[in-house]
Amino acid sequence: MDETDTGTIAYGDEIAGAETFAEQSRRRAETERDAVEWAIEELESQVSTQGVDLEPLLEYARRSRESLPDRHRRSYEAMADAFDVDSDTYEVYVFAFSELCEELAEGTGRSEKNPKGCTNALVSSPKADLEVVDGPLVCKNRDVAGRGVRPKSIVEQPPIDRYHGFLTVDTCGTISIFKGVNDRGLVAANTYIDSERDDIDPEHQLRNGTAIRIVLEECATVAEARTALESYPTRRLMGQTLFLADDTDALLLEIDPVAERIAVDDESVVTRTNHFVHSRSTETESSTTRRERALELLEEKGRLDRDDLWEIAQDHENGPGDDSICRHPEPETDEPHAFGQLTTASTAIFEGGSPTIGVAMGTPCETERARCSFGEEIPADLRTGARWLERMH
């Protein structure tokens, strides 16, 4: 990375000056260029070495791209034009990465298509200590396959036209958002559930990362977010648990497209991994073990604050490995990229009503924490992905 990575990048013309989604994406691509081009080059090498046929993955990727709102499709096209990379590999990286990991993993492989990744928690009044936090707390450990070629950065999108701006930590060079907070303080974060219909084509399915980005761009409150999601036919959604919080309200939605049902959980302590609690779904030992451990830790404490959630995010009980909340590669995992196992790639902690994110790149037990606020200066190495690259490689 260049010398600017030792400083900060302010919320000035470089970010706030974008007036269209395409322009914002071009500016973001320039910021994340080194990390993305490195990752695509690594993937190209792996694909070539293992003789992976990208054509079936490209067909799925292109069909999935058709499901995007026009503004998100323009964002993707602008970034694709900006990077000096193989266009096919980049398209698979954006839209079919978990499927590619299945092809690259040693043995049978484990990826985000299997219900084994991410641990989330939601804490609201009276369990949240509102004397020291601004609102309900949301924690997400983001577990991904292939984390060694999935660089992470702080992504900040300014308000554009009538759409809200947002702040998140997510994958460099992609357009999907799996957690974040917008400029009104609305928080959204999900866990993937293996519950999809066979009669909905990729062109007509609202991808989880698209749904969360729509919520953050279009909604200011939990009530608005719930209304927005319920405006779509549930059969067109993907299986997920969706955590929502603003300055006063918090709840979890279990979105089950197979049963065409959205169940609500508004208890003061809620945690989910990768199976439904109120509906039927595939349930693995890892998912059950991680949820039970998270609940145990949350319920044994009194009133909770950010530090308590950081402690839970770093928990190694039943590991550290596939069954722990903080997930490390198992001994047999294909290092350094870990295509065959979901491992913790980042941790994010939010407070409803506050456009601020607490973040750790990589496993939270080993990584320096940072707090970033919408509209303020943020270390350049967090915006570019350089800190992630240094941490992981």
Fold and architecture overview:
The chain is of the alpha+beta class and 393 residues long. The protein is built from twelve helices and 15 strands. The strands form three sheets. It has a seven-stranded antiparallel beta sheet. The protein has a six-stranded antiparallel beta sheet with strand order 11-2-3-12-13-14. Strand 6 (179-182) and strand 7 form a beta hairpin. This is Peptidase C45. InterPro entries: C45_proenzyme-like (IPR047794), Peptidase_C45_hydrolase (IPR005079). Residues 1-32 are annotated as: Disordered. Residues 135-320 form the Peptidase C45 hydrolase domain.
List strands and helices in order, with pairings.
Layout: E1 8-9, H1 13-16, H2 21-50, H3 55-65, H4 70-82, H5 87-95, H6 97-104, E2 119-123, E3 137-144, E4 152-157, E5 166-171, E6 179-182, E7 187-192, H7 208-218, H8 222-230, E8 240-245, E9 250-256, E10 261-265, E11 269-272, H9 285-300, H10 306-313, E12 343-351, E13 354-361, E14 370-373, E15 378-379, H11 380-384, H12 386-392
Antiparallel strand pairs: 1-15, 2-3, 2-11, 3-12, 4-5, 5-6, 6-7, 7-8, 8-9, 9-10, 12-13, 13-14
Helix pairs in contact: 2-4, 3-5, 7-8
